[in-house]
Amino acid sequence: MHTSRAVGHKPGTTGHGSHTEPAWVRWLLISCAIAVISILVIIPVVNVFYQALANGFDTYRHQLLDDAETRHAIWLTLTVVPVAVVLNTIFGVAVAWAVTRFQFPGRTILIAFIDLPFAISPVVVGLMIMLMFGRLGIWGPTLEHWGIKIVFAYPGLVLATTFVTLPFVARELIPVMEALGADEETAAVSLGANGWQMFWRITLPNIRLGLLYGVILCNARAMGEFGAVRVVSGGISGETDTMPLRVEKLFQEYELPESFAVASVLTLLALVTLIAKTLLEHQTQQQLARADDEQAET
Amino acid sequence: MSISIEHVSKHFGKFQALTDINLEVGSGELVALLGPSGSGKTTLLRIIAGLETANAGVVRYQDLDMTHSRPQERQIGFVFQHYALFRHMTVFENVAFGMRIRKTPNVEVAKRVKELLHLVRLEGLEKRYPAQLSGGQRQRVALARALGVQPRVLLLDEPFGALDAKVRAELRQWLRQLHDQMHVTTIFVTHDQEEAFEVADKVVVMQGGKIEQLGTPQEVFDHPANAFVMDFLGNVNVFHGRMQSGKVHLPGFEMAYPEYDHDVAQTATAYVRPHEVDLDRVAPNGAAMQVKVLQVHPAGSVAKVRVQSEEFGMALNIELSLDRYSELRPKQGEFLFASPRKVRVFKPADDYVI
User: Fold this and answer.
1) A117 burial via Cβ count (<10 Å: 0-12, 13-18, 19+)
2) How many Cβ atoms are within 10 Å of B341's Cβ, its own excluded?
3) Rg (chain A; Cα; Å)
4) How far apart are CA B289 and CA B310, in angstroms?
């Protein structure tokens, strides 16, 4: 969001600027964009809601809430996702702090590794977890001995979701904290603040928008996660099926209306996330513009 | 409170920032650490503040060894080069920060912030944010914030560096007045010799992680310890010659130099300040060289004249008082006699090259 601001302030890149291309080129490009977005995004999304609500709202409600397994899937997603988001928020802040405030050997490698979960296919992530914590995995026998269940259970789902969404918060915070610099933090220390006071009173208020943005993106991705969770869940209905897995299962079982109903809830959550993100971006822009105006006044 | 620095050294990786620094700052003194960038002055200030840790040596506040104390334990006020105001807090909350950390009751915070804002002449701006202030105002908020913790030592890192010339001159005088009112031990870092001389009781000239000279502004300016200090504290004309048997032979004149009495000749470099050269139409009795006037700039508080000695192939910068200038009225292309009133030769051991 910080880069978008820089671009927005540059004259000539705002869209009102140069009109050197002939009209037909502009219209062609705009129509292409609208057509692609409509066919690939808008129509399918609307269709999900249309299909889900085709038999009226009451049926929709029954489809969602009457089935115990569907109810459990919704409940599971709502319990797995927050834990993964909290873990990634803590991890993201810690990593961004380490990377932007300290110089240490291997710093660049660490930054590269943060991105790894983006690059690896989620299915492979699932397999990796199986090979570590599964029955035949490295720690499998030890865990079995102590009676701790990771795969095919709640901890495995959290682990897979956390892994896949690991980079979001850190990626969002690193540039923000780099731009802020350590000056204000050093000033707080010179005025007698200890580490916690410095973090809560100075760092956190300064990074809050970037942090919130990272958390929203992380949340969106965590709710939709399918591949890695599919592998570690073992697909036990009513036990380890999250919402995306439930959608797939209902679809496979030709229970199309039910499948669409669950899918519509997932889509709705995604839309809410998108709206929250847009509002936040809007607010950030306004805040920055206000600060600029005020600066210009004085 | 007095501060002693004893044998302090600091390196960052392979870079030696400070080498065996020894310094005493008396209670209530106002001291300037003066030097070019990379001289280690800011590092020394940060070590005194506890924001940086020395690799060797001891830092004492009064008689207490504070070398390994954290900044929180030192009760210092630190003013940063770029102010480092808390951007999400109002002026009031910025100044109050140190007191809030110390859990000062609200009533007292309000009273003290009011006093401090009065002191830095920012009454009425309590509710502004740093982004809404001018550079000079931000600087004063930073100072009020540092004073808010009732520091035993006030440390300022290039406090006026980012301000324009006029505001800088004002704030400089104001800092001096403020110090005279409060008598808190103050150390500030600057690369501007004028600033150091105008404000400080004592100037510490630094270069390459070492202290080159320490003294009152007058002492340092009149008796520079070596070629570096001489050059750093203002413009100089450089004469290259040689020294032998207690004498220095320079272009156009020679002078006694008992410090070097060997028979073996050695190269010598002499320094003359532009305002310590006389210009005349008739050859004076003493040492002088014939010069041709290249340029004359009478604008300003002194008249600047640039001359060239054709015999020795060297140019000189000369500053005449306006009285002397109107008496002499040198013209471009005219031949005159230049005679240095004060020449400084430094021993070759100070292997410093301009």
Assistant:
1) middle
2) 11
3) 23
4) 10
**Same domain membership, residue A103 and residue A251:** yes
pLDDT (tens digit per residue) in B133-159: 988 899 899 999 999 988 999 999 998
Give the span between the Cα atoms of B124 and B138, in whole angstroms: 14
Is-contact B67 B58, C-beta < 8 A?
A: yes
How far apart, in whole angstroms, are the C-alpha atoms of residue A52 and residue B352?
85
Q: How far apart are CA A291 and CA A285, in angstroms?
A: 10
Q: What 3-state class would DSSP assign to A17?
A: coil
Domain total of chain A: 2
C-alpha span between B236 and B340 (Å, rounded): 12
Nearest CB partner across the interface for A191, out of B82, B88, B97: B97
- Give the amino acid at A68: A
Q: Which residues contact A215 (CB under 8 A, 6 or more apart)?
A: A85, A89, A168, A169
Query: Does residue A103 belong to the interface with chain B, where contact is any CB pair within 8 Å?
Result: no
Average of per-residue pLDDT across B112-136: 90
Q: What is the per-residue pLDDT across A198-242, written as a single tens digit (0 to 9) for each?
A: 999 999 999 988 898 899 889 988 988 888 988 888 878 778 888
**Same structural domain, A137 and A210:** yes
Say yes or no for a CB contact (<8 Å) between B131 and A294: yes
User: Of B86, B134, B145, which is closest to A298 when you measure between CB atoms?
Assistant: B134
A82/A31 same-domain check: no
Q: What is the pTM of this model?
A: 0.76
Name the minimum distance, in Å, from the CA of B102 to any CA of chain A.
8
AA letter at B309: S
A87 CA: distance to closest CA in chain B (Å): 27
Residue A61 shares a structural domain with residue A129: yes
Domain boundary, last residue among A17, A32, A52: A52
Distance from CA of A254 to the nearest CA of B (A): 55
Out of A17, A36, A52, a domain closes at A52
Question: Is residue A64 located within the same domain as residue A154?
Answer: yes
Q: Using one digit for the tens of pLDDT, what is the confidence trace for A28-74?
A: 999 999 999 999 989 988 988 888 888 888 888 888 888 888 888 88
Say how far apart CA B172 and CA B190 lie, in whole Å. Answer: 12
Q: Which ipTM score applies to this complex? A: 0.78
pLDDT in tens, A155-210: 889 999 999 999 999 999 999 999 888 899 999 999 999 989 999 999 999 998 88
- Report the DSSP pairing between strands B289-297 and B335-340: antiparallel
Contact A132, A151 (CB under 8 A): no
- Measured distance CA(A203)–CA(A96) in Å, rounded: 12
Same domain, A44 and A65: no
Domain extent at residue A175: 56-297
In the predicted model, is pLDDT for residue B36 greater than 60? yes
The answer to whether residues A162 and A135 belong to one domain is: yes
Using the 8-state DSSP alphabet, how is residue B283 labeled?
P
User: How many whole angstroms separate alpha carbon A187 and alpha carbon A166?
Assistant: 31
What CATH number has the domain bearing residue A129? 1.10.3720.10
Whose tokens are 């909290």? That residue is A86
| CA separation for the pair B133, B113 (Å, rounded) | 17
CB B205 within 8 A of CB B232: yes
Strand partners, B34: B190, B205
Whether residues A249 and A261 share a domain: the answer is: yes
